[in-house]
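Notebook, bench 3.
Goal today: get a predicted structure for Diaminopimelate epimerase from Desulfobacter postgatei 2ac9 so we can plan the truncation constructs. The sequence was checked against the plasmid map this morning, with no discrepancies at the termini. Length recorded as 369 residues. Pasting the sequence as submitted so the record is complete.
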Amino acid sequence: MKKIPFSKFTSYGNNFVIVDEVNSPIFGETEKGRFAHFATNMYFGIGSDNFLVVQRCTRKVLDSINQVRGYWDELPDLHEADFIFRMFEPDGTEAFSCGNGLMCIANYLFRTYQLASVKIVTEIPTNHPKIIDIGTERDGQSSWANLGQPRKITQDLFKPEIAQLYDDIILTVDNLEIGFRAHDLEPFSNQTRLTLKGYIVFTGEPHMVIYPEKDGILSGFEEVFFATSEYTSTLGKPAERRVDFGIWLVDRIGLALNNTYKNMFPAGISINFARPISTPGEKGILEYRCFERGIFKETLACGTGAVAVSYISKRLNKIIPGENTILPYRCRLHEPESKIKIHENETGECRIIGFPVMLVNGEFELNHL
């Protein structure tokens, strides 16, 4: 029996199991993906959205990754980085990046090694891994991750069969059709088909942003996607029913887009539903919810999704430039005061700022991998 030391963190309900390999490896490279099952399984494991590993960035570590994974023809030059960020999905596949996960790692490094800021490698399973800055304020409260400039999605992640360029970075996709059984959408609608429009960008992960109030979802469905929000009227419908239906509908649309259009999104795509909020005295507020690829369900929040929503909304003139507030709808059903800050500088680089929380340190008794 092997005892695996771990820490569990949450950032806006997006929760992670972290294993520290900074000083020495705990798993072999092939074992990391297999342990993801135990890290994420809430019934027969620890329970989390994703499994994170933090490693020292050395040529030896990079070589050990590449010998097994074969990600690169030659080792990338990452000598300026201090650490490597690894994230594994429940099925063991390795993801690219994660805003909430990076903030949790920043907080972990601050707590464990008293490091206020570090350079860390993300997007390991790509041809060109990226070095970014992450950190935690000296009071140990808020953490941040500099995710850099959003980018145009690459052709290995998106086959643009029906896409159009909105600008140099953002792509638009019209006429995405999703079918439903008779009565599926009742009592909110008697239709059996939705036609959607999405805006696509890469923020470390591939994201599509849909605006329910205008982009093809039926009139009145905004009240379903954001039911019980302080910014939503009730329309006389029971709030609990709208919440439950909205949860079902987000997962139904997310799964349908990832399955029906798998030829278009071969690695999957995260689907965000967003709307701008107008309040007296404060501008630049967005409310959103996100169905995540890899997990293939809605999570309580998504950091790279929040950046995608912020970035696209500014280009569509839905909110003002600069720093804005993102309200994670699903998280706020449990923690009503939750807010994510996204700061975009004059060069388009985006920094996510939030409040990750350490939940527990422990040991997992592993019988086999």
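Residues 2-149+357-366 form a domain with the Diaminopimelate Epimerase; Chain A, domain 1 fold (CATH 3.10.310.10). Residues 22 and 55 are 4 Å apart (CA to CA).
Flagging this for group meeting.
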